[in-house]
Design a protein that fits this description.
alpha/beta
Length: about 280
């Protein structure tokens, strides 16, 4: 067993996949594209920002020869689908600036890895949102009118035993998941790039600065989780109280309706007994 730093932390995730060799190997297995890149940028931001909300990519690489941009994001529990869809669209819009018309000069692909949130699909743990036009009836792809195959992948690694995920994908997902308990069994993996990944994040190779950032992330994550739980509990209590109140009001109206049907009391008397307004009683 090898002791490693968990890939749940941004600082470790970036440490690992900032290596062009590991980045290209990951992209090759998930997307099927062999990138030709010399560097991977950390915390990439567009200046000036696209739209009114600034964005920042954890890992960003541009293959200028093949005109492909690949972004890799490490997502937290509270991160939403919409956030990364906005990132994807912003990247696509940004590329238009270098085009003479509205044709996208570059294909944009975004990979988002969740290490804490459960997958909404139990079969593969991978969701793909593409921007390819299809015939409404037949579903046939119309690549002739829109050649750029932009794609947004959501990869949920917390349950990496998804039976329908392709083997290369599943092995990366399993490797990321295995790192979370700080030790991995290298003998389970045949992919040499995953072996290299474990070497990079080996505990003895983590710097004091990286350890400090891991602690900061851990504290922030705990506070965020506690805040989420408190909000969830508050919402449940408010919903319960609202339900009780709604039930009580419904019961009072039903009582007033029965008294009114009985015909022995005036509407004013019913209003006084039930506490309802005279207008409400008259409307029953």
């Amino acid at each position: 067993m090898k002791k490693v730093a968990p890939l749940r932390y941004d600082v470790i995730f970036k440490k690992a996949f900032s290596h062009p060799e590991l980045f290209t190997a990951l992209v090759k297995d998930f997307v099927g594209i062999q990138l030709e890149i010399d560097e991977v940028e950390n915390d990439k931001a567009f200046v000036p920002p696209v739209g009114k909300v600034a964005i920042k990519f954890d890992l960003f690489a541009e293959d200028k020869k093949n005109r492909v941009i690949v972004e890799v994001q490490h997502a937290h529990y509270s991160d939403s689908y919409e956030r990364f869809l906005y990132y994807q669209c912003s990247s696509m819009v940004e590329t238009i600036a270098s085009s003479s018309n509205y044709s996208f000069p570059i294909t944009v692909i975004t990979l988002v890895f969740f290490t804490g949130k459960k997958a909404p699909n139990s079969d593969s743990g991978i969701i793909v949102h593409d921007f390819e036009p299809k015939d409404f009836v037949t579903g046939q792809l119309l690549t002739n009118i829109y050649p750029r195959k932009h794609k947004l992948f959501f990869v949920f690694t917390n349950n990496s035993t998804h039976k329908d995920a392709p083997v290369p994908h599943r092995e990366w997902m399993q490797a990321i998941y295995d790192s979370l308990d700080k030790q991995v069994d290298e003998t389970k993996y045949t992919n040499p790039s995953i072996q290299a990944l474990f070497d990079v994040i080996e505990q003895d190779k983590i710097t004091p600065e990286e350890r400090a950032r891991m602690k900061e992330e851990h504290n922030h994550e705990e506070a965020e989780t506690q805040k989420f739980k408190e909000g969830e509990e508050k919402g449940w209590k408010e919903g319960k109280n609202e339900g009780i109140k709604e039930g009580e009001e419904k019961g009072i109206r039903e009582t007033a309706r029965n008294l009114k049907a009985n015909g022995k009391l005036t509407e004013e008397e019913i209003a006084n007994i039930t506490g309802l307004s005279l207008e409400v009683v008259k409307a029953l």
